[in-house]
Amino acid sequence: MTGLTEVARELYALPLGEFVAARNARAKEIDDPEVRSAVQKLPKPSIAGWAANMLSLHRPDVLGEVLDVGADLREAQEARDGAALRALDRDRRDALRAVEDAAKALAGEHGQSFGPAAVTALHETMLAALSDPDAAEAVRSGVLVAALGPPGFGPVDLTGATAVDVPAGPARARRARRSPTPPKAPPPDRVAEQRAKALAAARKQAARAERDVASAEAAVETARTRRDDAEQKRQATEKHLAELTQQVAGLDRRVTDAEKAVTSARADLSTARAAVDRHDPGAGTS
């Protein structure tokens, strides 16, 4: 019997313009009424979601590189390793640029437009995958429906992000193994019980604080990327302004030279007319 996940993977691997017709046709082929109904409800992916799915299917090397950098960044953040974070910053920028270039190429191959808004949405989706292992698994799944929001404080909101549930990947499994073990049942006496409750609360607060720190550091990385982009645009604008200033200065010189030429020509004309008047006194009265 065909399952929903299998059908979803088939449909989300298609060119974006073929999705709706293929989904409706595929649903008619399914005998199980529950699966058929679920297939009919599968949403058409956004352009950024489709691009991520294409990368997962056709360029897993490029997508895997950015997700691997994300895992390294998260480990460096957890270890408070500033040197590693700085070293990984260039890898992060290079990996994001490679993903965007590959997505544009795949869109072109499939006849799909991929403008600035789509590039921005994909960029923010990849930033979310860099900061959150669950988001990374959603991006890797091949059944992403919508772009993911940029990382902020706390985990990335993945509600409705994928067409079907995505199983836990290695990153999420490692995180689960690292989760603090709940305290054992305390002795029945009151003092021990209070201590156990306080310990559990402290562990919970510490885990929350670690997540907040990791999210804050990811937000810093996002802001740094945007700052770098703005700086590049500023430098390009300044270069263009300098070129225009040089052009204006050159044109000013040409105007000055032209004005001098006009003045000289007028003087020559006056001299010539005076010569005509001297040699032909009647010329001026005709």
Description:
The protein has helices at 4-11, 19-28, 33-40, 47-58, 60-78, 82-109, 116-131, 133-140, 170-178, 190-279. With 286 residues, it is mainly α. It is elongated. Residues 171-183 have low confidence and may be disordered.
Q: Tell me the series of helices and strands, N- to C-terminal.
A: HHHHHHHHHH
Work out the helix count. Answer: 10
Main pleated sheet: none
Portion in strands: under 5%
Mean pLDDT: 84
Give the quaternary arrangement of the chains: single chain
Q: Fraction of residues in helices?
A: over 70%
Label the overall shape. elongated
Count all strands and give the number: 0
N→C terminal distance: 111 Å
Radius of gyration in whole Å, from Cα? 33 Å
Low-confidence stretches: 171-183
Global structural class: mainly alpha
Quick structural overview:
The protein has 286 residues and is an all-alpha fold.
Give the secondary structure arrangement, pairings included:
Elements (H helix, E strand, L loop, with lengths): L3 H8 L7 H10 L4 H8 L6 H12 L1 H19 L3 H28 L6 H16 L1 H8 L29 H9 L11 H90 L7
Helix pairs in contact: 2-3, 4-5, 4-6, 4-7, 5-6, 5-7, 7-8
